[in-house]
Design goal:
The protein is α/β, with parallel strands linked by helices. The chain has three domains: 247 residues, Metallo-dependent phosphatases (Purple Acid Phosphatase, chain A, domain 2, 4-Layer Sandwich), CATH 3.60.21.10; 100 residues; 87 residues, no CATH class. The chain has twelve helices and 15 strands. Helix 9 packs across helix 10 and helix 10 packs across helix 12. The radius of gyration is 26 Å and the shape is globular. Bound molecules: manganese (II) ion. The site of manganese (II) ion (MN) has 7 residues, from loops. The site of manganese (II) ion has 7 residues, from loops. Keywords: Exonuclease, Hydrolase, Nuclease.
């Protein structure tokens, strides 16, 4: 086998609108809006500097099927730069940009191959000597919702000694939080005899298998607080024996993160404010020129719980911290260069608990003790958790808007656990309050 190198990227979601963000200064909004394009630019730079033989992109190139002319023109520019360096691109379309979308169809240059709605295979060559090094196969979504298992259409020619790469936009093994389009199992993919499965669709980076390689690279730019951490693509070196070495490269220009700050050792409001400032400055120091968007969740049990419970204090701190970043933003002469030092607070969440000793409480023969025991049981028992959350939410289900939201947000077990914990803390705060007023009639 001849050694070669390629890039595997997916879910570019070009021109994502970032419309859900409120209270963001215009300068930041524009930067956010441009971040998917900036990441695309980085992808092209990487392909050129790493001298890859080709690039594969596994679907959702555009964010919307009605993709903007801007998105198409910027993509065209990227294709052209790659063409100037003789780097071919193999692309499939996914649920966000299916083949039947009504977008303007700017023609693609000859070095860009778009796979159709049936599995096609193409020989990929090495740039240095034009030798064929791999077979690249892929299938695009004809329309937005593909419910069949398209992985079954991929079959390797067993006589071929070439390296086989499959491009598929799919939900493998029913992962939560993404539509179950083109559903297939890990076993299905392993059975095809392919060497490398270049997946797209799930935005969280994951290596599902090393033999064969089955990889979700994640998207190249995070788009919300649901897409935290480094985002980028894989540069894959395939050696003479067919062994591959995929290395992740960061491409994101905006980094999203969720940060937890425990109030456990914080005694005063001053301690609390300082703990937050410390975190923000630490993020700023490690930003490496990236705009950071963060949400802080206060956790743990401590004396500050009752103060934070109303949400007023944290709301005011949020406003103040935003104001400071705004001052920093305006103080800089040339906007874009300095955005890398901005740490924008997208929100604060209070998930703290009362300053009580839960281990004693769990033993206690009291209503509060019973409440904590039930809650602890439900944490380890999915069915019990489901039934508690379901009955608590039942009154909201009459409203169609709420029903829709709950279906979207409340479906996964993490959200249910969070609801349970919040309910436990709220109930116990109220009970203790009533208790201290003597209202329980003891
Ligand atoms: Mn996607």
């Amino acid at each position: 086998m001849l050694p070669f190198r390629f890039i595997h990227a997916a879910d570019l979601h070009l021109d994502t609108p970032f419309s859900g963000m409120s209270g963001v200064p215009e300068q930041l909004r524009q930067y956010l809006q441009g971040s998917t394009f900036a990441a695309l630019g980085g992808l092209v730079d990487l392909a050129i500097s790493e001298e890859v033989d080709f690039i594969v992109i596994s679907g959702d190139v555009y964010d919307a099927s009605e993709s903007s002319l801007r998105a198409q023109l910027r993509l065209r520019e990227a294709w052209e730069r790659l063409g100037q360096h003789g780097i071919p691109v193999y692309v499939i379309h996914g649920n966000h940009d299916p083949l039947n979308s009504r977008r303007l169809r700017l023609a693609h240059p000859p070095h860009v191959t778009i796979f159709g709605a049936k599995v096609e295979s193409i020989n990929a060559t090495r740039r240095s000597d034009g030798e064929t090094v791999a077979v690249v196969s892929g299938i695009s979504y004809p329309s937005a919702a593909v419910m069949e298992n398209t992985s079954l259409q991929f079959r390797r020619d067993l006589a071929s000694k070439l390296y086989h790469i499959g491009l598929l936009h799919a939900n493998v093994d029913g992962q939560e939080g993404h539509d179950a389009y083109s559903p297939c199992s890990l076993r299905d993919l392993q059975n095809t005899g392919y060497d490398y499965w270049a997946l797209g669709h799930i935005h969280k980076r994951q290596v599902l298998s090393q033999s064969p390689w089955i990889i979700y690279p994640g998207n190249i730019q995070g788009r919300s607080l649901k897409e935290t951490g480094p985002k980028g693509c894989y540069v894959v070196d395939v050696g003479e024996n067919g062994e591959a070495n995929p290395i992740f490269h960061e491409l994101d220009h905006v980094r999203w993160s969720e940060i937890e700050i425990s109030i456990e050792r914080l005694l005063t409001e001053e301690d609390w404010k300082e703990a937050v400032e410390e975190q923000i400055e630490e993020l700023r120091e490690n930003s490496v020129g990236r705009l950071q968007v963060v949400r802080i969740t206060f956790t743990g049990r401590g004396p500050l719980h009752s103060l934070l419970q109303s949400g007023r204090e944290s709301g005011e701190l949020l406003q103040e911290l935003r104001r400071r970043e705004n001052v920093r933003l305006q103080g800089s002469e040339n906007g874009v260069g300095s955005l890398g030092s901005i740490v924008w607070l997208a929100g604060v969440k209070v998930a703290t608990g009362m300053d009580i000793d839960t281990s004693t409480l769990l033993q206690e023969d009291s209503f509060l003790g019973e409440l904590f025991r039930l809650s602890a049981r439900a944490e380890g028992d999915i069915e019990l958790l489901d039934s508690i959350v379901e009955s608590a939410l039942a009154p909201l289900m009459d409203n169609s808007t709420l029903r829709g939201l709950l279906k979207e947000e409340g479906a996964n077990s993490n959200t249910k656990l969070e609801l349970l914990r919040r309910a436990q803390e709220l109930a116990s705060s109220l009970l203790v309050e009533v208790d201290s007023r003597g209202g329980m009639g003891q």
